[in-house]
Design a protein that fits this description.
It is a single chain. With 203 residues, this protein is mainly alpha-helical. It has a domain at 94-201. It is built from 7 helices and 4 strands. The chain has helices at residues 2-22, 28-43, 57-64, 69-84, 94-116, 140-164, 171-184, and strands spanning 119-121, 127-129, 191-193, 199-201. The strands form 2 sheets. Strands 1-2 form a two-stranded antiparallel ribbon. The protein has a two-stranded antiparallel sheet with strand order 3-4. Helix 1 (2-22) runs parallel beside helix 4 (69-84). The protein is globular, with a radius of gyration of 22 Å. The relative contact order is 0.14. Residues 13-23 and 51-84 have low confidence and may be disordered.
Length: 203
C-alpha cells in the first residue's frame, strides 16, 4: 500500500512538472541576459556586475538532507533541461542595433548629469530630471532634448525586442526587466526611483 502511494505521488509530481514545461511563459532569465548585454554596450565600463552569490558546501549539505530535496530533484530533473534549452532573446535585428548605437552615442553627454545627480533612472525604465538646479541654465534645453531622445529610444527598444522575438505582449515585462537591470547595473552614487517613486541614491 505504501509503495502504491509513493508511486502515485511520484506520478502526480511528474504530471505537475510536465504541465509546467508546456506552458508558454516569459523567459525571464533570457530577458535579463539580453538587458545586461545592451546595458553594458551602452554604458561600457560604467556598468557594474551583480553576480549571484554561490552556495556554500555547508548550505548544499543542508539542502540535500532536507525532506523536500528528493521532490525538488524530480522537478529539476524534468524542468531544467527545458530551461537550459531556452533560446536567448534575439537582440540582433537592424532596428535594435540602430537604437542601441544611438543610445551609445548619446551616453557620454548624459553621463556627467547622472554623476552629478541632476538626472536619474525612473522605475519604468526611463530617465528623468531629478534636480534641475544641478543643470546650468544654459544647458537645460539641451539636457531636456537629450532626455527626450533617450526615452524615445528606450521605449522603442522595449517594443522592438518584443516584436523581434514574435511576442509583442512581452513588452511590459521587458520594460520591467530593463528598469530593474538599469538600476542594478548603475554605478554607486547615481540616483534612481524606488517602487514608491521616491528618489534614492545608489550605495
Amino acid at each position: 500500500m505504501k509503495k502504491r502511494l509513493c508511486w502515485s505521488s511520484l506520478l502526480t509530481a511528474i504530471g505537475m512538472a510536465a504541465c509546467v514545461t508546456i506552458n508558454i511563459y516569459f523567459p525571464a532569465a533570457a530577458a535579463e541576459k539580453a538587458a545586461d548585454k545592451i546595458i553594458e554596450d551602452v554604458w561600457e565600463q560604467d556598468a557594474t556586475t551583480t553576480p549571484a552569490a554561490p552556495i556554500s558546501p555547508v548550505e548544499q549539505e543542508g539542502l540535500s538532507s532536507s525532506p523536500g530535496f528528493a521532490w525538488r530533484w524530480v522537478f529539476d530533473l524534468l524542468i531544467t533541461p527545458v530551461a537550459a534549452a531556452e533560446p536567448n532573446l534575439d537582440i540582433s535585428s537592424p532596428t535594435i542595433k540602430r537604437i542601441t548605437a544611438s543610445m551609445e552615442r548619446r551616453y557620454p553627454k548624459l553621463r556627467p548629469y547622472f554623476q552629478s545627480g541632476a538626472i536619474g533612472l525612473t522605475q519604468d525604465g526611463l530617465v528623468a530630471v531629478r534636480k534641475a538646479q544641478e543643470i546650468p541654465l544654459k544647458d537645460r534645453t539641451q539636457v531636456n532634448q537629450l532626455l527626450a531622445a533617450e526615452n524615445n529610444d528606450r521605449n522603442a527598444l522595449y517594443g522592438e525586442i518584443a516584436r523581434a522575438n514574435g511576442h509583442p505582449e512581452w513588452e511590459a515585462q521587458l520594460r520591467e526587466t530593463f528598469a530593474r537591470r538599469w538600476i542594478q547595473k548603475a554605478p554607486p552614487g547615481w540616483w534612481y526611483q524606488n517602487a514608491q517613486g521616491q528618489w534614492v541614491q545608489k550605495r
